[in-house]
Write the structure tokens for this entry.
Amino acid sequence: MAGAGGKSMGSYDYLIKLMLIGDSGVGKSSLLLRFSDDSFDMNCTPTIGIDFKLRTIELDGKKIKLQLLDTAGQERFKTITTAHYRNAMGILLVYDITNEQSFKNIEEWLKNIEKHTSQPVNKILIGNKTDLGAQRKVSTEEGRKLAEQLNMAFYETSAKDKSMVDEAFFALTRDIKKRLGEHPG
Ligand code: GDP
Ligand code: MG
């Protein structure tokens, strides 16, 4: 019976909207694909516009529908503004551990987020591409230090090797769920 008691297939206890932000090429779309479809596309072509992916997860006995927003083709600070951030409840700030500039730009992205959001937003710092250890330019310690300064959780991930990807998304979702309390919306 559709909708009965809110326990039917397709129903959920929470709808949580997450966004991935960071420089072009850091692996935002790959992380999204890995998390939502459990796949990785080595030749993933940058898409234009905004894409949504969906995944429903269970946390502490609650069904949580995640709406995951990608920002393909709009990865310069000035092009992501209020409209894009609207309704975002959590943001994954992503850099590439082999690209120092992408790490330096995290603070710029943060300023952009602060400038363009009025709602509370939980944030998490992600250093992606840990499988490329030989080309690493940003140490784990540097990442951890920045996250500490910014008062955020920190994860190093590999979208390619499927390392820590679920963990990062789950941690952010758990923080948001906690903030929303038992009776969201
Ligand atoms: P976006 O511009 O931030 O969305 O980055 P993409 O997801 O398009 O990824 C940019 C490039 O990095 C693509 O060639 C991906 O295959 C590659 N890439 C993404 N994540 C990883 C990773 O964890 N490891 C490696 N080795 N390559 C990755
Ligand atoms: Mg992309």
Helices lie at 28-37, 82-85, 100-104, 106-116, 140-149, 165-180. The first helix runs from residue 28 to 37.
